[in-house]
Amino acid sequence: MAKPVKKKRRPRYGRIFFSLLFVGLFFYAVINLGIDLFYKEQATYLVEVGNLDIQNDYAGVVLRNELIVDTNLSGKVTYFTNEGDVVDKNHLVAEIFNDGATVEEVTASEREQNRKKIEFDYNLLEYEITTLKNEILFQMDEGRYAEIPKLKKDLMQKLERLDKLQEENKFLSNRTASYSEKTIGEGKLMEGQKQAIYSPASGVITYRIDGYEDFLTIDNLYNINYDEIKSLTFEEESLVKQTVKPKDRLFKIVDHGNYFIAAIVSNDEIDTYKNIQSISAIIDGKSYQGEVYDVFTNGENAVAVIQLREPFDGFFTRRLINCSIVRENYRGLKIHMDSIVNMDGKMGVYAVDKERKLNFVPIKVLGYDEAYAIIYNEQFYDVTQGGIVRSLKVNQEIVRTASQYKQGQRID
C-alpha cells in the first residue's frame, strides 16, 4: 500500500512579519522610553540641599602668642640656640660674659633692681596660661586624655594666681595677655663673670622682631583696622649682636602649638563660616586643619579668624600671608554649574513653571567647584538690585546646560 505524500507547509510570512514588527516596536518603545527618561533627567532636575567643599583665596594676618626676653646685663653674648629651634622651659639659649671691654650702663638703682627680683612676674604667668589652654584643647582633639588632668591642674593653679593679681591690680584685666615681656639678668656682671640665659617658657626661638608684637595679638583682635593693615610694611630687626647692654632685647619665644589667621573675606561669605563641621587652610601649598574662632564684619569687608595648631614654615615671623581656606562639607542649596546663566549682568538660572515655560530666577553664589555651586536659599541681599532679591527654593525644577535655552521657552 502506498504511503500518502505529506504536503509541505508554506511559510506564514504574514505572521513572521507581524511578529518581527511587534518585537521591533517593543524594543523601539523601550529604547525610546529609556532615552526620553535619561534626557529628561539630564535636561531638568529638582534643586535640593547638598554638601560642597567651598574654597576661596584670601590675604591673612597672622596673630600669635609671643614673649620677648630682654636683659639688664651687659657683656659679650654667645648664642647656643638657632633661629626657629623649638625649646622647652629652662633650655639654655645664650650666655653673657663680661670680658672687661664692655662699658656697663646701669640706669636703675640697687633698690629698683632688688624690687624687680622679688616682684611677681605676671607677664610670664599670662603667657603660660595661654599656652596651657591651647595645649589642653590640642590634647583633647588628639584623644590624649591621660595628659589632660595634669595640664588642667596646672592651669587652675595659675588661673587662681592670676585672679588674685587682678583683684589687687585692676589694670591687669585690660592687659594684652597674648603678648608678654620678660627680663632675665639683673645687677652687674663682674669682670670675667658669666651669666647663662635660659628660656623662661617653651616655644619657638626667634631673634627677629618687627615692632608689632604688642599690637597684632588675638587679644587685640577687634581693635585692628584690617582694611589698612595690608598697606603696612613689616621691617624685621635682628636681635643678634656681639655685645649687649641693659634694656637690650635678646630673643623672642613664640607659642608653636597655637596661632590664628585673620583672613579678610567678603561680607557675603560670613554665613559660610558659621555652623560648619571642619575647615582647613592651604598655605604655601600645604593643608592645615583648623577651627573657626570667630567671624565678624569689618567695614567694607569681613574677618574670619581661623585657629590653627600645626605650624607652617616661618609662621613665627611672618605677619601677612596669602592662603586658601576650605570650608569642608558646607551645606546649602546645591545646583549644577552649567545651570547658571548671565542675563543683563545678573547671575541666575531658568526655572520651569507649571506651564513648562522657563523663567529667569536670580541667584547669589556662596561657593563653587568645577561641577557644583552652593547658593542662597529663597532670598539674598543685593544693594545693586534694590535690597532683598527673591531666589530659588528647595524642590524647584531648573534646567541644565542653561545656555541652550531662552527666557519664556517651553520645554517638554
Question: Tags for this entry?
Answer:
412 residues; six-stranded antiparallel beta barrel; alpha+beta
Describe the structure.
The protein is an alpha+beta fold. It is built from five helices and 24 strands. The protein has helices at 13-43, 110-118, 122-142, 148-168, 226-229, and strands at residues 44-46, 48-70, 75-79, 86-87, 92-97, 179-183, 194-198, 203-206, 208-209, 237-238, 243-244, 249-265, 278-283, 286-298, 301-308, 320-336, 341-343, 346-352, 358-362, 365-368, 372-375, 379-382, 387-390, 397-399. The strands form six sheets. It has a six-stranded antiparallel β-barrel with strand order 2-12-15-14-13-16. A hairpin with a 5-residue loop joins strand 18 (346-352) and strand 19. Helix 3 runs antiparallel to helix 4. The longest helix has 31 residues, at 13-43. Mean pLDDT is 81; it is low at 37-41, 114-120 and 169-176.
What's the gist of this structure?
With 412 residues, the chain is of the alpha+beta class. Helix content is 21%, strand content 37%.
Provide the fold topology.
Elements: H1 13-43, E1 44-46, E2 48-70, E3 75-79, E4 86-87, E5 92-97, H2 110-118, H3 122-142, H4 148-168, E6 179-183, E7 194-198, E8 203-206, E9 208-209, H5 226-229, E10 237-238, E11 243-244, E12 249-265, E13 278-283, E14 286-298, E15 301-308, E16 320-336, E17 341-343, E18 346-352, E19 358-362, E20 365-368, E21 372-375, E22 379-382, E23 387-390, E24 397-399
Parallel strand pairs: 2-6
Antiparallel strand pairs: 1-24, 2-12, 2-16, 3-5, 3-11, 4-8, 5-7, 8-12, 9-10, 12-15, 13-14, 13-16, 14-15, 16-21, 17-18, 18-19, 20-21, 22-23
Helix pairs in contact: 3-4
